[in-house]
Amino acid sequence: MSFSRITVVGLGLIGSSVALAARARIAGIRVTGYDADPEVRRVAREIGLCDTIADDAADAAHDAELVVLCVPVGAMGRAAANLAPALPADAIVTDVGSCKASVVEALQAALPGHTLVPAHPVAGTEQSGPTAGFATLFNHRWCILTPPEGTDPAAVDRVAGFWRALGAEVETMAPDHHDRVLAVTSHLPHLIAYTIVGTASDLEEVTQSEVIKYSAGGFRDFTRIAASDPTMWRDVFLANREAVLDMLQRFSEDLALLQRAIRWGQGDALFDHFTQTRAIRRSIVEQGQDDARADFGRTHG
Ligand code: NAP
Fold first, then answer.
1. Pocket lining: 75 vs ligand 1, CB cutoff 6 Å
2. In the predicted model, what is the mean pLDDT of residues 214-225?
3. Superfamily of domain 5-173
4. Where is the Prephenate/arogenate dehydrogenase domain (predicted)?
5. Ligand 1: which atom is nearest the Cα of residue 121?
6. Are 221 and 193 in contact, with CB atoms under 8 Å apart?
7. Among 9, 41, 42, 232, which is best to mutate for testing ligand 1, by the most ligand atoms less than 8 A from CB?
């Protein structure tokens, strides 16, 4: 049984994509939007993002069957608490936060007694704001549900059906496990990109203009990730601290091994390592999670 009235709270990249995808793919759905930022609400109205844009969180939620919280993870508790007084008792609440254990805790504290089916669509870009969204963002991407123990299975099924309707493939996981998996597949790569881009721009003997001019040597691919939203990523690292620090420790040990191999001229060790990593790229392409064309399909005309 799908939803006919949903409320999207937070109309940035992910919220606007949820609104667009729901309206494009679920017949007869009515989408109400709300964002704390009046300028975002103004733009959302101007581009006709939702059927209605509310000026108040309570107005947005009063007749919702499903609420989708699309705010930074550090703001989830506050956003949920603002809805609480008006939220219908039988409404289901989901979210799109990039870390789950801390978000589940915050939502449970803010909405006691409500049905919560937290989610993380593993899809995004480096853009932010209400004009950054697009209806196909979730197509063939995974959406991981992390329902707290004891959640009504029928509610989990309905939320799974909602994400499938938006084009996603759905998987269910415990919140802590999700946070460890994403620490290595998403959070650590972002931290590395933020570091490399910072390091390159701090070098004294290489000028900024040279870094930019020769960026096609690899650097520019890190800059896409390092251009991601600062608020979102500050919150992710604060919220998933333990798992990120653990993965960072392992990464540092592996980096030290490569450093040693370079220092001692161990070409075979380097070659074997790079052969394994190349195979991982092939698996990602084979599973439809990236473009098979060289250089991510960029045109070189
Ligand atoms: P975004 O483009 O910055 O949009 C977030 C919006 O939420 C902003 O307009 C923000 O307004 C608004 N907001 C903040 N606090 C609010 C509150 N209490 N009530 C209502 N609105 C509020 O961010 P995004 O990239 O869409 O990310 C949203 C969520 O999706 C995050 O939890 C993130 O972890 C998750 N996610 C992101 C990606 C990605 O690639 N970007 C992928 C998967 C999941 P202000 O700017 O005024 O604060």
1. yes
2. 91
3. NAD(P)-binding Rossmann-like Domain (3.40.50.720)
4. 4-292
5. 43
6. no
7. 232
